[in-house]
Design brief:
Helices cover about 65% and strands about 10% of the residues. With about 120 residues, it is mostly helical.
């Protein structure tokens, strides 16, 4: 019997969405957009250390998944705002909870790492 985490055809879409939402930049985009909509440059500054290309790819992927909404306003100069959809807000709440748990439990993780490393040396 195949595992529920099998990479077979039926599980692939679930895994891809999970990868998109929990990717390095996906997590940060979701958490940042929880506060308010952002223009591309604002989002890039808020996240920090993300290339224009990677942020563009991340936003496009999340938009395709129905998690991020891209609102291009027909003005000069062009203005594009990014915000979370209802689906995106739901995902962001889950991701933020995991991020907060990680922050809260980091001391325990560091202690476990130290014990592991000492046992290996």
């Amino acid at each position: 019997m195949p595992s529920k985490y099998d990479t077979g055809e039926t599980m692939c879409p679930y895994r891809l969405v999970l990868e998109h939402v929990t990717s390095r930049w996906g997590v940060l985009v979701l958490i940042e957009l929880m506060e308010r909509p952002h223009r591309f440059s604002e989002l890039r500054r808020a996240i920090g250390r993300v290339s224009e290309k990677m942020l563009t790819q991340t936003l496009q992927t999340l938009e395709r998944d129905g998690i991020v909404h891209r609102d291009a306003k027909p003005v000069i100069p062009p203005r594009v705002d990014y915000s979370l959809t209802d689906l995106g807000r739901e995902a962001a709440v889950q991701v933020r909870a995991l991020a907060l748990w990680t922050e809260k439990r980091m001391g325990d993780v560091e202690k476990a790492r130290q014990g592991y490393d000492e046992a290996r040396s």
